[in-house]
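User: Could you check the structure of this?
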Amino acid sequence: METPFVSNIAKIKAKARLHEWQTDALAAAAANAQVEGDDAITNTAVPTVRLTNYCQILAKTPRVSGTQESVDKAGRGSEMAYQVRKRMEELKRDLEFACVRNQSSSAGNDATPSRMAGVESWIATNKTTAGSASLSAPVTTPGYAAGIVASPTDATTAGTVTEAMLKSVIQAAWNAGGDPKTLMVGPATKSKISSAFAGIATRYRDANKNGGAAIVSGVDLYISDFGEHKIVPNRFMRDQNILVLDMEYWALAQLRPLKAMDLAKTGDSERKQLIMEATLVSRNEKASGKVSDINPAL
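Assistant: Sure, the predicted C-alpha cells are below.
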C-alpha cells in the first residue's frame, strides 16, 4: 500500500471545497550598487498570484451481514473491523492515484463529482516530451488558467527517453529556484533508467567483513550536475512519465480527514462509510518538471 507521493508531502487544512492559496516569487538577481547618500527609490511590488484546486471526495462503504459478524472466523475476530482496515488502505491508494496522474480539476455539480487536478496536470513550465504529435493534436500542458487546471494532451506516439531529456528538465527546475531531489517513475520506466542512463549510482553495496560485495541490478540514486536525485517507483502513476519533483512545493489540503462513520441499519447487516475530502496544492509548479510520452520498451 505504499503511497510515496502523498506520504512525503505536507498536510495542511482546507477550509472550503474550492481551496485557495497564494504564490509568490523572488525577483531575478541583478547588479545592485547604490550611491552614497542617494535618496531611496521604492521597488515596484509584484502582486501575489492566487491559485485554486477543488476538493475531491473519496469514499468506501463496507457492509457485513449479522451472521458473518457473529460466526467464528479464521484469522480475525471481527469481519467489520477487517473490512474497515482494508478499505482504508484502498482509499489511501485511490488518493495517491488521483494526486500523481493527469486528472484535471472540476467543480462538479449535482450529478458529477468535483475532482482535484493531479501533479502531472499542474506541471506546465519545465517539461519535455519523448513522443511525437500530429499538427492537429500537438502535445500541450495548459496548466492553471482561469481557475481550472486542464489535463495535458499526450503525444500521438510515445518515444524513446534519453538522459539528455531528464538533465534538461532537472536544470530548468533548478534554474527556476527548485531543488528537485525526487524522480518519481512507473515500474517499466524505472527499469529503463537503471539500464540506459549513465548518471546512475555505482551498482554495488559495501562488503561486510563476513562476505563480498552484493551486485544489484536496480538503481535508486541518480546523480546529475545539480546533485543527487532519489529514484522512487510509483505503482499508481502513468508509466509514460518521469516526474522531477521538489517535494517541498506540494501539499495535501484536507477539508475532511479520513474517518469511519456508522450508517443507519436497514436490515440484518452493518454498514460503515469511510470518507475523506481533500485536494492537491501546488505551491509553485516551476520548482518541479516532467518528461512525458515515454515508451519504456524503446
